[in-house]
């Protein structure tokens, strides 16, 4: 619902904005707040020739009127020989004698009238058939926006947990304030609320926007907040910092902040950090250091709960496993294995959709099988391994229009999900859901794209190259261990070089003679990289956090002579990471 609401909104926004602005102008003209030029109508003729009305085809003034300019022609009353024709054209208005066809009076349109006529045409599409058709189609998007907006609101409302035994704010000894965009943080807040209530405390839980001017009996304040977008406040905390500025720090009230986020984003848990900084700046007493939870980690939440237990002097059973989205079944149709010789088993796995059970599944089979959910290269597949409720996320190397769900997975000795995926045989299935990741993909345009990765991080990078059908400049820097064993996507990359989808390939291997890492290749090509970035280039990095950190340092070194750095590029949207 959110995706449809956002996409339809983008499509219809220009037309709705045009209708709204022109409608405001016409309303203002109706209430005489702005001139519409109607006051400059021609003077009604005091004398007419009189006599029987002549056919329209015999009236000279009408015959001289270009039909392309005609706006309106009002006929005289048939029983009134003194009545006249009223003529409106794009250039002006006139009265025409019905007996002689003479032009009795004429008034050219002024600037105000011409503006009003133009606005009227833009508002209605009258006289511009293509605009009228476009406005009509966009108007059909309004009920879609209304329906998807209402459904999204209802789903968010339903996903909010109902707090049992929520004490009044002024009688509670413990306050929990929650900042959430899609209500996922409320599940953790509910677990904390229930645990503290069972420990005998009076707990009040509310959105951060409901920060009170004072809490008469409160001894401790817990703030659990997510971060929205690029370090912004989530919707339920959008007014918190402004309200905090009007509240004096209570002497006996201590606080602790727990941030929720995703480390693949550059400003991980930034709003939680801003909240703690603001509280400290106003003199609030901190009870616990700021802690963060990456991708709703149950383990990180339990560790924070142990610190809270020590704080209040009672053991808390603080556990919460987020309910994952509904999964779809996918069947393995192809696998390509690498890396056995260097003890780094890595596989490219391609899955096809499986029709759902029930009536919907029967329809899908009649139409030729299952249907992939919508996703693009760089989005994430949340794979739920058997025996676990916690999904593992893998960057997608394909889009739904490719017809397969493709991921690149390295087998880890203690990796529950990677062991499961590597054990799959062609024809076997996995359960997964899609998590959109629109912040990790190249910006459209002809600016050069520099792709940097190592190991399985090549997955989405190969997908970006595959979809580069416009053959815009793309440069790949990738690091592996041994070209004879784990040169992932080597046949595909050779084809992309040959057909122009990939401009240059710079591979680095660490377990060969004079081995090097991908950041070394970046430094070796410093001059070319500086030129590409000076021409508006963009950089996408995918791989392990250690590799990303080393690459970032190398890029800062390379770009320093042209007075650029990765922080500036991030702010400009020209440096994007997907790290794990």
Give the helix/strand layout.
Blueprint: H1 2-30, H2 60-63, E1 70-74, E2 84-89, E3 92-97, E4 103-108, H3 111-124, H4 129-139, H5 141-159, E5 174-179, H6 184-198, E6 203-207, E7 220-226, H7 240-244, E8 254-261, H8 270-281, E9 285-286, E10 291-294, H9 298-312, E11 328-338, E12 346-353, H10 359-366, E13 380-384, E14 392-395, E15 405-410, H11 416-422, E16 429-435, E17 449-454, H12 458-466, E18 474-480, H13 490-499, E19 504-509, H14 518-524, H15 526-534, E20 538-543, H16 545-559, H17 566-571, E21 575-579
Parallel strand pairs: 5-6, 5-7, 7-8, 8-9, 8-10, 17-18, 17-20, 18-19, 20-21
Antiparallel strand pairs: 1-2, 2-3, 3-4, 11-12, 11-16, 12-15, 13-14, 13-16
Helix pairs in contact: 1-3, 1-4, 1-5, 14-16
Low-confidence blocks of residues: none
What composes the largest sheet? 6 strands, parallel
Counted by DSSP, the helix tally is: 17
Structural class: alpha/beta
Task: Tally the structural domains.
Answer: 5
Radius of gyration, in angstroms, nearest whole number = 34 Å
